[in-house]
Design goal:
By secondary structure, this protein is an alpha+beta fold. The strands form two sheets. The protein has a four-stranded mixed sheet. The longest helix is centred in the N-terminal third of the chain and has 13 residues. The mean pLDDT is 95.
C-alpha cells in the first residue's frame, strides 16, 4: 500500500491542527484496547486537553497512518507536529519524567 497525497495531507492537517494528538483504538472516554487505555491514563494525568482520533472508525486513516509514521501499531502519539511513539515508548518517557518535556 502507498500513501496517497490526499491522505498524507489529511493526516498532516490533523497533526498540525492540535498541539497533542493521540491516534488510538476507541475514544478518550472509551478506549477499545489496553494499550490505548494506558496512554489515555497517562495523558489524562498530565494534560487537561488533547485531541484523539479513533482509528477504528476509518480504515483509510488506520492503514495510512502506519505509512505516515512508519509505525505499525496503535496508539500513536504526536506532540507539536512530531511523532513521539506508541504505548511502550510513552510509558518509558513518562517513567523517566521526560514525557512532559516532549508534550
Amino acid at each position: 500500500m502507498t500513501l496517497s497525497d490526499a491522505l498524507r495531507a489529511h493526516l498532516q492537517s490533523i497533526v498540525d491542527a492540535h498541539p497533542v494528538v493521540l491516534f488510538m483504538k476507541g475514544t478518550r472516554h472509551s478506549p477499545q484496547c489496553g494499550f490505548s487505555a494506558t496512554v489515555v491514563g497517562i495523558l489524562d494525568a498530565m494534560l487537561p486537553e488533547y485531541h484523539t482520533v479513533d482509528v477504528l472508525a476509518d480504515p483509510a486513516v488506520r492503514d495510512g497512518l502506519k505509512l505516515f509514521s512508519d509505525w505499525a501499531t496503535f496508539p500513536q502519539l504526536y506532540a507539536r507536529g512530531k511523532f513521539i511513539g506508541g504505548s511502550d515508548i510513552i510509558k518509558e518517557l513518562h517513567g523517566r519524567g521526560e514525557l512532559a518535556t516532549a508534550l
